[in-house]
Amino acid sequence: MSNEFPQALTIAGSDSDGSAGMEADMNTFQRRNVHGMCVMTACVAGNSYGIQASHALPTDFVDQEFQSLAADFKIRASKTGMLADSPMIETVVKNYQKFDFGPLVLDPVIITKHGALLLEEEAFETLKQQLIPLATVITPNFYEAIKLTGIDIKNDDDTIQAAHILQEMGAKNVMLKGSHKPGEQTEVRDFVLLEDGSSFWLSEPYIETDRVNGTGDVLSACITAEIAKGTDIPTAIRIAKKFVTAAIANPIAVGHKYGPVNHLAKFQA
């Protein structure tokens, strides 16, 4: 029968070197045995040294991408990645409310894991007010959580408070990723707050490496893939944490500087 195989969607930009964005999401979907589809929002020309050029796609084209997919496929879970500006975020919100593309995993691409701002202030407010309330799972990194909540996260209590604020903003489930401080830590601890009010911590060894491009994309894509297969939210998050840790711990030699994680790394779920 048609559409029996699990299908997942990434709504993101295309990263030409394959280390992040839509390409990283699609690699993750395939690795987790899910058919991946995409709504492309932008194109980025870049390599392991950095980004040399970028181009946002017209919102009417993005509308058509959504419409074309909805007319044919049964998408069981979706995720967002980089959304360039307020009009693009509003376009995604409008279409996600119009079509049934399953639970939404929101990777709020606002600030890099090193603290560099990626989203202009107007778009940031649009994301807070319109997109977060649609999220089944939100996966901010340490700096994004600070920006979104206004909490200066210094300890576990601050982390827990920030997660509750994100839930109050509309996200049903929160995975708040821990900080990454080279030379200062031996583990990465993430806090998970679930819709029913229960919570847990996840901890894996901190791996000091420059092969970490796309880690946030891969984590959120893995959660999305698992949800598309019918995995419950807590288990999907746990699998994604293990998947990303293995992908970082087993690097591949691609590029000269900041390389991608290894989607093919074996791991124990």
Description of the structure:
With 269 residues, the protein is α/β, with parallel strands linked by helices. It has a single domain (7-249), classed as 3-Layer(aba) Sandwich (UDP-N-acetylmuramoyl-L-alanine:D-glutamate ligase), CATH 3.40.1190. Helix content is 37%, strand content 21%. It has eight helices and nine strands. The protein has a nine-stranded mixed sheet with strand order 3-2-1-4-5-6-7-8-9, sandwiched between helices. A hairpin with a 2-residue loop joins strand 2 (35-47) and strand 3 (50-56). Helix 3 runs parallel beside helix 4 (121-131) and helix 5 (142-149) packs across helix 6 (156-168). It is globular. The mean pLDDT is 93.
What layout of secondary structure does this protein have?
Elements: E1 7-15, H1 21-31, E2 35-47, E3 50-56, H2 59-70, E4 77-80, H3 86-98, E5 104-106, H4 121-131, E6 137-138, H5 142-149, H6 156-168, E7 173-176, E8 187-193, E9 199-205, H7 215-228, H8 233-249
Parallel strand pairs: 1-2, 1-4, 4-5, 5-6, 6-7
Antiparallel strand pairs: 2-3, 7-8, 8-9
Helix pairs in contact: 1-7, 2-3, 3-4, 5-6, 7-8
Percent helix: 25-40%
Number of helices: 8
CATH class: Alpha Beta
Mean pLDDT: 93
Radius of gyration: 17 Å
The spatial strand order of the largest sheet comes to 3-2-1-4-5-6-7-8-9
Spans where pLDDT lies below 50 across 5 or more residues: none
Q: Count the strands? A: 9
How many strands, what sense, and barrel or not for the largest sheet? 9 strands, mixed
Q: Supply the number of structural domains.
A: 1
What form results from the Cα inertia axes? globular
Judged by helices, strands and strand pairing, the structural class is alpha/beta
CATH homology-level superfamily: Ribokinase
CATH fold field value: UDP-N-acetylmuramoyl-L-alanine:D-glutamate ligase
How much of the polypeptide forms β-strand, as a percent range?
A: 15-25%
- Return the string of H and E elements: EHEEHEHEHEHHEEEHH
The second-level CATH architecture is: 3-Layer(aba) Sandwich
